[in-house]
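Researcher: Sequence recovery benchmark, item below. Answer with residues only.
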């Protein structure tokens, strides 16, 4: 089985044109967990978030405070299944973590070890439950590899799980044209964050929730199409019911 798609792709102007014919999108449910009342914790990783990035980090937290009880989550209710009913969420924590030795490149495994170590040792972080989602924001100049790709080269963010019960998303700083597009840095960050948020809710274990074998997850089908909700740039998401990005 191919590795399920879990990333925000680069802006289309910087991708190689696809030669494959477009297959109409239709997500199907694969039986895995959904996040019904998502509890977001933001972790800003790197000294930059204490310095020049502090204001941006505060804006990202405000974004989650507004968006988690907005129409963006309401529209996901069409993906309810008998065991999971998707409602509003909340931001339950935030932390800025400055590593003793900064790394310019990380692996996904390195991010997982960081998160698990923080959950063991950082008392300011809420402990994980079935609805927990940890958003890890990387500092400018730090890249991450996942699934054979690399941030700013092939993707702009991704979500993943550890062991099917610890859910997280990794948001590299959008410091390249492919991950900013025509947006401001804040708009790029909230747009890609909303993409991963909606995908983590509807496909918490990539490929085991709502998924389309040809087109990927709910956000992939609509990448880089944005709208404003609660004053923030968010990405459109695929609606099976509407047969369109909404
Ligand atoms: Zn995606």
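Model:
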């Amino acid at each position: 089985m191919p590795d399920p798609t879990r990333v925000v792709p680069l802006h289309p102007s910087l991708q190689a044109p696809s030669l494959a014919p477009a297959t109409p999108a239709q997500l199907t449910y694969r039986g895995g967990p959904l996040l019904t009342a998502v509890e977001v914790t933001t972790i800003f990783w790197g000294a930059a978030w204490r310095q020049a990035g502090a204001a941006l980090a505060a804006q990202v937290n405000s974004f989650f405070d507004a968006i988690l009880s907005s129409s963006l989550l309401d529209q996901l209710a069409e993906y309810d299944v008998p065991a999971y009913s998707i409602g509003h969420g909340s931001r339950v924590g935030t932390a800025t973590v400055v590593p003793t030795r900064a790394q310019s490149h990380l692996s996904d495994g390195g991010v997982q070890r960081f998160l698990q170590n923080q959950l063991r040792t950082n008392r300011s972080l809420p402990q994980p439950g079935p609805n927990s989602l940890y958003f890890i924001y990387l500092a400018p100049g730090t890249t991450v590899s996942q699934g054979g790709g690399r941030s700013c080269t092939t993707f702009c963010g991704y979500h993943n799980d550890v062991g099917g019960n610890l859910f997280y998303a990794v948001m590299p700083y959008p410091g390249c044209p492919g991950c900013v597009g025509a947006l401001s840095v804040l708009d790029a960050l909230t747009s890609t964050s909303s993409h991963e948020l909606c995908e983590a809710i509807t496909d918490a274990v990539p490929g085991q929730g709502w998924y389309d074998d040809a087109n990927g997850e709910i956000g992939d089908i609509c990448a880089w199409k944005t709208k404003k909700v609660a004053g923030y740039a968010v990405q459109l998401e695929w609606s099976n019911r509407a047969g369109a990005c909404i």
